[in-house]
Amino acid sequence: MRNIKRQSNDPIFKIQLHNYGEEDFGAAAYTHYLHNKTNLSLEQEAKSYVTKILEAHLSINKADSTYYKRIDDAMQYYLFDINADIPFPEPKKPKFTFIDLFAGIGGFRIAMQSLGGKCVFSSEWDKKAQETYDANFGEIPFGDITKERVKEFIPDNFDILCAGFPCQAFSIAGKRRGFEETRGTLFFDVAEILKRKRPKAFFLENVKGLLNHDKGRTIEVILNTLRDDLGYYVPNPKIINAKDFGVPQHRERVFIVGFDPEQTDVSDFEYPEPLNKKVCFKDIKEEKEVSVKYYLSTQYLNTLITHKERHAAKGNGFGYAIISDDDIANAVVCGGMGRERNLVIDNRLTNFTPVTNIKGEVNRNGIRRMTPREWARLQGFPDEFKIVVADASAYKQFGNSVAVPAIRETAKQIIKALKFM
């Protein structure tokens, strides 16, 4: 857990209270309780978790006359000023509430909080992503949302469901093509939560290819489920490009928005128009010389060149790409190709001595990968966002994330329609 700056002589306050990915949900319930102190189910789970940890580390038991006092003191200690050392605290006077499913590292959360939203539940199974989320928001997301035990912690009466749900394959077998046919997919869990909790609105994000998956039958199932089975008003999905909203990255994603017609009157909702703000790579480029570890070796560069030439001879456009300072980046995605399609030229390197094991020498053409911080900026994450994991995990996390500015502008239209602004 993040280090609490205040000090205490009692060793109870120096204990590591969790490990990411806890299967008993205690750590997630505990950090959620820090932000949602009126949730009694969280309080019970949080206190049980803290008690278990303290008993294990300090060997205290109920026979100790100070047992209950020390546990209560520990609970109150961490409740105090929980937002003091995180870069993205929740708003002091929230305008609305939301939940953050398939939360990743919190792209949705940054956008929604910036508009006055309070997150009352988050879920993300990846342990490294949980670590990053905790460092920035002071909260560990619950794990696997497909588990009923996790769903039980979702509160009632939140306003908006947010989910960048994975594009897990759909099996289209029957004729109804609705709620029942989504079973076995992660979308089913989103639909099930919508059915149980009936939030005023939802905001879903997915890859552009969702619209054409299985010749269009997948999106048909999704829309039939949301509209016909669940009764939400759902405007036609729209492909939104991050480059239209202030970041220099060509990243198209499909957004799906819906409203409960029994709670709202928002038939005039419109997706946001492009901001027409011209940006390019130099706007987010590192200001100072970066480590030699980001520069390609001569052997690796030659391998990329040969690979591209071989595909070009076959009429294919595969291979690496170099983004000039005045260009916009290709979509940042997971895997090596995501980095190789976004190489840049940076001639500021002064020390060519490798700091990692490479074959060959560091290239003298100034060709390097973008840094994780540059990827963060391509996705619209503020520089205050903490990167607390190794580079490989950071690239994966930002590649999987949503583009924050595009989410924010669309969310702004949602909350305007809901009369929260």
List keywords for this structure.
disordered N terminus; 13 helices; 9 strands; SAM-dependent_MTases_sf; S-adenosyl-L-methionine; globular; Cytosine-specific methyltransferase; 6-stranded mixed sheet; restriction system; 3-stranded mixed sheet; alpha/beta; Rossmann fold; 421 residues; 3 domains
Task: Produce the secondary structure layout.
Blueprint: H1 26-35, H2 40-58, H3 67-79, E1 96-101, H4 107-114, E2 117-122, H5 127-137, H6 148-151, E3 160-163, H7 186-197, E4 201-207, H8 217-229, E5 238-241, E6 252-259, H9 298-313, E7 322-323, H10 336-340, E8 343-345, E9 367-368, H11 372-378, H12 391-400, H13 404-417
Parallel strand pairs: 1-2, 1-3, 3-4, 7-8
Antiparallel strand pairs: 4-6, 5-6, 8-9
Helix pairs in contact: 1-2, 2-3, 4-13
Weakly predicted, low-confidence segments: 1-7, 171-176
Mean of all residue-level pLDDT scores = 87
CATH class membership of the largest domain: Alpha Beta
Q: Kindly report the spatial arrangement of strands forming the biggest sheet.
A: 2-1-3-4-6-5
SS-derived structural category: alpha/beta
**What general outline do the C-alpha atoms trace?**
globular
Measured distance between first and last alpha carbons: 35 Å
Helix content: 25-40%
Radius of gyration, whole Å: 24 Å
Largest sheet: 6 strands, mixed
Question: Strand fraction band?
Answer: 5-15%
The ordered H/E elements are HHHEHEHHEHEHEEHEHEEHHH
Using DSSP, what is the number of strands? 9
Q: What is the fold-level CATH name, i.e. the topology of the largest domain?
A: Rossmann fold
From the coordinates shown, what is the CATH architecture of the largest domain?
3-Layer(aba) Sandwich
CATH superfamily of the largest domain: Vaccinia Virus protein VP39
Give the count of helical stretches.
Answer: 13
What's the number of domains? 3
Pfam families: DNA_methylase (PF00145)
GO molecular function, one term: methyltransferase activity
Organism: Falsiporphyromonas endometrii
Catalytic activity: a 2'-deoxycytidine in DNA + S-adenosyl-L-methionine = a 5-methyl-2'-deoxycytidine in DNA + S-adenosyl-L-homocysteine + H(+)
